[in-house]
From TrEMBL:
Protein name: Tyrosine--tRNA ligase
Protein keywords: Aminoacyl-tRNA synthetase, ATP-binding, Ligase, Nucleotide-binding, Protein biosynthesis
Gene Ontology annotations of biological process type: tyrosyl-tRNA aminoacylation
Catalytic activity: tRNA(Tyr) + L-tyrosine + ATP = L-tyrosyl-tRNA(Tyr) + AMP + diphosphate + H(+)
GO molecular function per UniProt: ATP binding; tyrosine-tRNA ligase activity
Family according to the record: Belongs to the class-I aminoacyl-tRNA synthetase family.
Family matches, as Pfam families: tRNA-synt_1b
CC per GO annotation: cytosol; mitochondrion
Name of the top EC class for this enzyme: ligase
EC number(s) reported in the record: 6.1.1.1
InterPro entries attached to this UniProt entry: aa-tRNA-synth_I_CS, aa-tRNA-synth_Ic, Rossmann-like_a/b/a_fold, Tyr-tRNA-ligase, Tyr-tRNA-ligase_bac-type
Length: 345
C-alpha cells in the first residue's frame, strides 16, 4: 500500500468518516476484533484508541498483496438514495480518488428480503415491478455520481463498478444455497443477534423469515465479491455493524483460512433529535432533486446546529477543520452544496 493511500485512510479516520473497523485479531491470529473510535468528531487530537485503530489498519494493510477493493451495498427500497447515503458514497469516492477500486452493490435480491438491522418495525413488502424500477434508478444515480466525480478529479472511471446481487442469486440453485450458505449458519448465533432479540421480544413480534435470513445473503455477497473482485473491505452505515461482523465470520469459515478482511462503518447522519435521517417519510432528504420531498438538502443543512454542520462537512468536503471553524454557518452550508450539487444534477 503506497503512502498516499495509507494517508487517505488516516484522513478518513481523522475527519470522523469512519466510526469502527473490524480487522483480524492480533495480526493474523484467530478471529476478529472491532475497534470503535470513541473520539467525538470535533476533537481530532490523537487519543489512545485512535492510535490503536490506525496501527491495526496499518498492520492489516501491510499484509495485503494487492490493492484491496472496497464495497458498499445499497438496497433499492426507494427510487433514489438520500443524504444519509451520501456519507457512504463520499467514503467510496475518496477511496477511488486514492487508487482503490470501489464497488457499489445494488441489493436487487436483498431489498426484497428486508434488512432488519437499524429498523424497529417490519418493512412494507416491495412489488417485483417497483423493485426493478428502483434498481434501475439507483444504478443510474450512482453511475452518474461516480462518473461526474471521476471527470472532476481526473480519475479512471474503471476504478468504479456498480453491480447488482441479482447477478449471482438469479442463477443460484437451492442446493447451492443450502450447501454453501445456509449450512454455515448456526441458529444459536442467529438468535443471539440484538436485532433478532428485540424484534422477537418487541411488542409486534412480527419478524419475517426473510428478514431473519437476510444476513446470510449479505454475508455471501462479501464472499462472492472477495473471490471475484478481490474485495476485502466492506463499508456500511454504522447500523450495518452486525451484518458486517457476521459476514466477516462467514467468509472466514467458508474459506477455511483467515483472509485479510476488514469491515468499516460510517457514522449515521441523524436529525437534531438524534433520529436516523431517512428513517421515516418525513425526515428524508432525497438526492434526486426532482423527487417530492418534505425537506430539501438546503433546508436540512440550514436547520442543524453548527457542530453538526461542521461534522457533516468534514465528511462531505475536503475543507480542513480550521477552515470550517473560521467560516460562518451559511458559508459552510455553501461549501457543502458546492461539493454535492454538481454530482447530483
Ligand atoms: N443491508 C444494507 C444493504 C446491503 C445489501 C447487500 C450487501 O451485500 C451489503 C449491504 C442496508 O440495508 O443498508
Amino acid at each position: 500500500m503506497t503512502a498516499s493511500r495509507m494517508k487517505c485512510i488516516h484522513q478518513m479516520i481523522e475527519r470522523g468518516m469512519i466510526q469502527c473497523i473490524t480487522v483480524p485479531e492480533k495480526k493474523m491470529g484467530k478471529g476478529r476484533v472491532t475497534i470503535r473510535r470513541r473520539t467525538p468528531d470535533l476533537r481530532l487530537e490523537e487519543t489512545k484508541q485512535h492510535r490503536h485503530l490506525l496501527k491495526i489498519f496499518d498492520t492489516f494493510s501491510s499484509v495485503q498483496n494487492n490493492t484491496p477493493a472496497y464495497y458498499c451495498g445499497f438496497d433499492p427500497t426507494a427510487d433514489s438514495l438520500h443524504l444519509g447515503h451520501m456519507t457512504l458514497l463520499s467514503v467510496l469516492l475518496s477511496l477511488a480518488k486514492n487508487g482503490f477500486p470501489v464497488i457499489a452493490l445494488i441489493g436487487g435480491v436483498t431489498a426484497k428480503l428486508g434488512d432488519p438491522e437499524g429498523k424497529d418495525e417490519n418493512r412494507v413488502l416491495i412489488s417485483h415491478q417497483q423493485l426493478e424500477k428502483n434498481s434501475i434508478a439507483l444504478q443510474e444515480q450512482i453511475t452518474n455520481i461516480f462518473q461526474r466525480y471521476a471527470d472532476k478529479h481526473n480519475i479512471d472511471s474503471s476504478s468504479f463498478s456498480v453491480l447488482n446481487n441479482k447477478e449471482w442469486y438469479s442463477t443460484m440453485t437451492l442446493d447451492q444455497y443450502t450447501d454453501s450458505i445456509a449450512s454455515e449458519f448456526k441458529l444459536v448465533d442467529m438468535f443471539q443477534r440484538a436485532v433478532v432479540k428485540s424484534r422477537l421480544e418487541g411488542k409486534d413480534r412480527d419478524m419475517r423469515f426473510t428478514e431473519f435470513v437476510y444476513q446470510t445473503f449479505q454475508s455471501y455477497d462479501w464472499l462472492y465479491l472477495y473471490k471475484h473482485y478481490g474485495c476485502s473491505i466492506q463499508v456500511g452505515g454504522h447500523d450495518q455493524l452486525g451484518n458486517i461482523e457476521d459476514g466477516y465470520d462467514f467468509v472466514w469459515r467458508s474459506l477455511h483460512q483467515l483472509p485479510t478482511l476488514a469491515g468499516v462503518t460510517v457514522p449515521l447522519v441523524v436529525t437534531e433529535d438524534g433520529q436516523k435521517l431517512g428513517k421515516t417519510a418525513t425526515n428524508v432528504v432525497w438526492l434526486d432533486q426532482s423527487k417530492a420531498s418534505s425537506m430539501s438538502l438546503e433546508q436540512y443543512l440550514a436547520g442543524i446546529s453548527r457542530t453538526d454542520l461542521i461534522s457533516l462537512s468534514l465528511k462531505l468536503t475536503n475543507h480542513s477543520i480550521a477552515e470550517l471553524q473560521n467560516t460562518s454557518q451559511s458559508g459552510i452550508l455553501e461549501m457543502i452544496l458546492e461539493e454535492i450539487m454538481p454530482l447530483l444534477t
